[in-house]
Amino acid sequence: MERVYWGRSILDVLPEELAIIGACRVFIVTNRTLANTALLATIVALLEHRYVGCYAQVTAHAPRECAIAGAAAARETDADLLLAVGGGSVIDAAKAMLMCLRHGYTSADQLDRHANVRIPDLGYAPSDAELWRRVIAVPTTLSAAEFASSAGLTDPTRGLKQAFSHPMQMPQAVILDPAMTMPTPLPLLKATGMKAVDHAAERMTSATANLYSDAVSELALRLLGEALMQIEGRPEDLGLRSKLQYGMFMSMCGAAAGVAVNVSHALGHVLGGHSGVPHGQTTGLILPAVLRWNKAVTVEAQTRIAAALDGPPGDGAAAISILVETLSLPTRLRDVGISNDEIPELARKAMHESLLANSRIPVKRADQLETILQSAW
C-alpha cells in the first residue's frame, strides 16, 4: 500500500491518484446495489476516457465464482487497474481477481492451490510484481478489507470461507471518503463498524500482541465506540462517518506490527461460509463469548477494552455486548437461525482456521470451540 486518503472527496482524490500511478484503463468492481447509485455514476463520469467497463455482480461473502467472472470481464477490456467500490465482499473479490488475472485462471477450482496458503509480506515487491495489475479501494462500509493483502472467498460447494493471500493483492491506494458510505444502509454500517471493533479487540487479546498494536487498537476502540453510539441520531454527519473510518483504519494498523486476530474471527469466517451469516453480524454473536472464554489469560487486555468502550470496569465481554445491544444488532446465534445441532459441525470446520494459532489459550480440540459456540447460542 502506498497511500491512504482520509477525509477527502473522491472527486478530488481519484484524479490525483490516477495521475500518480499512470493508469489509463480503469475497470470498476462493485455490486448491483451500488451500480445503480448516483455516486457510482459520478465516478464513471470522473474517469472519462479511462473507464473501460464494470463488473457489478459481486454478492455477499464473495463466492469464488465472482472472482473468476470478474477477472474474465476485466481481461476482455485489457484493464490496467481495478477500482473496487463497495464493502468487504466487493474489495475481497477485486483482490482475488488480481490473482486470477495474474495466473490466467478461468475456473474456480484453479484457485484450490492458493486456498489458506499464507504468503508473507516482506516489505518489498516480489520478483513478479510487474506482472500483477493493482487495485484502488473505495470502501462504502467499515469492514476494513482494504487494509489486508488476503482476500476471503467462499466456496459454496463446501460451505467454507477461505483466504487467498499475496502481497500484490494489497490495494495500491485506499480512498476513505465519508460520502461514499451514505448509500450504505445504517444497520449494515453499524454491523461492519462492529467488525472493526472485533479487529481491534482481538489484536489486544492476541498471543502476538505488542505495545504498538495495543496503542492503535485502543485508539480504534475509543473512536469506534464513541461514533457508533452517535450515528443513529446523526446519520447525515460526514464528520462522524469520517471518525468511524479513521477508527476502522486504526483497527487494522496493528497488523503492520505482525499482530493477528484470533478465535472470534476464525469462528466468524465459518458462520459466514457455512451458515451465510453477514460478516458484520458475527462480532456481536461471537466476540463476547470468546472474551468470556479467554478472560483468565486476557485480564489486562479486557480491562483496556472495557475502558476504551466506557463499559463495566474490567469486563471486555460486557462492554462489547452493551455496544451490540445499543446498536440493535443480533446478540445470540439462535437470533440468526443457527440451531444448536449445527454447533459441532461449525466447531469442526473452524479447526481448519489458521487464525486459531493466535489464541492465548491453545486451541487443540473442537470441543473447546463448541464451548464458545454454546455460550454464544
Structural account:
This protein has 2 domains: 3-180, Rossmann fold, CATH 3.40.50; 185-376, Dehydroquinate synthase-like - alpha domain (Dehydroquinate synthase-like, alpha domain, Up-down Bundle), CATH 1.20.1090. Helices cover 47% and strands 11% of the residues. The protein has helices spanning 10-21, 32-35, 38-47, 64-77, 88-103, 186-204, 211-231, 238-253, 263-275, 282-293, 299-308, 316-326, 343-350, 366-376; strands at 3-6, 26-29, 51-55, 81-86, 134-139, 150-155, 160-165, 173-176. The protein has a 6-stranded parallel β-sheet with strand order 1-8-5-4-2-3, sandwiched between helices. The longest helix has 21 residues, at 211-231. The model has no long low-confidence stretch (mean pLDDT 95).
User: What gross morphology would you assign?
Assistant: globular
If helices are DSSP runs of H or I spanning 4 or more residues, what is the number of helices? 14
Determine the strand fraction and express it as a percent band.
5-15%
Low-confidence stretches: none
Rg measurement, Å: 20 Å
CATH class of the largest domain: Mainly Alpha
The structural domain count equals 2
Please estimate the helix content: 40-55%
What spatial order of strands do you see in the largest sheet? 1-8-5-4-2-3
Number of strands: 8
Tell me the distance between the termini: 39 Å
Order of helices and strands: EHEHHEHEHEEEEHHHHHHHHH
CATH topology of the largest domain: Dehydroquinate synthase-like, alpha domain
